[in-house]
């Protein structure tokens, strides 16, 4: 039983199906002790409406990769193509949810004003902004918090507001950088299910960075596993679990355990410095 699907899931050249193309990107930082190569050469695609998780060892460059894709950091090489166009700065079609919701929401604005802000910048009329913001707050389960300020909400609720803001924007691609790392385990499970259900309902394309292997396998249709730095794609793992997932039955599915074990073993190899030459894993049951 093989897990690897590199190339099979996101065929380049399948016209109209690719939302995001990451083509040979490289990133080096200039530090006091000289240049540090973080991303060596990364290539992968994300199909429209696909849910892809990125995992890799700590310090492997996951956040750097997301910042490159979001146009927040200049590339040292390669290109990022969103909806067929190479990006040269933060593109209009992307929204990002960061880990640090406390700093991403404006405390002096109400919840609804926070959600409406990017829509204002997009030039949407007031009535449309209100409609979208209220629908998004409803979708994340916060219809009664529109007039509250972020500091009056729990951490989990604030992260829901950040998700509502991203969803209301109706992005072509939604980037999420460890968005649940700062919330407790119970809230984390609830927000994971919320994001899965929003993804199913809205058909948005999601690229989700996490250090949590279980979370990646639970959420994604495909997991892109990164090597340690300088980073390359170690393997793309197709998550062939049923689309309908829930915290109990999915996590106790033997296939979930196989996939988790496989991704775990890849990351252990990556940590030990093994690069692209990881032997293909086969499950004990094959
Ligand atoms: N602005 C910067 N200048 C210099 N080095 C940087 C900068 N940002 C990140 N790095 C380095 O790049 C490497 C990758 O960092 P990054 O935060 O992208 O990794 P990560 O995989 O997201 O890490 P973690 O899982 O621990 O959050 C690290 O060695 C980090 O020290």
Automatic annotation (TrEMBL):
The keyword Zinc does not apply. InterPro entries: AAA+_ATPase, ABC_transporter-like_ATP-bd, ABC_transporter-like_CS, ABC_transporter_ATP-bind, P-loop_NTPase. The keyword Cytoplasm does not apply. It comes from Arthrobacter methylotrophus. It holds the Pfam family ABC_tran. SMART domains: AAA. GO terms for molecular function: ATP binding. CDD domains: ABC_NrtD_SsuB_transporters. This is ABC transporter ATP-binding protein. Residues 20-253 form the ABC transporter domain. Keywords: ATP-binding, Nucleotide-binding, Transport. It comes from the Bacteria.
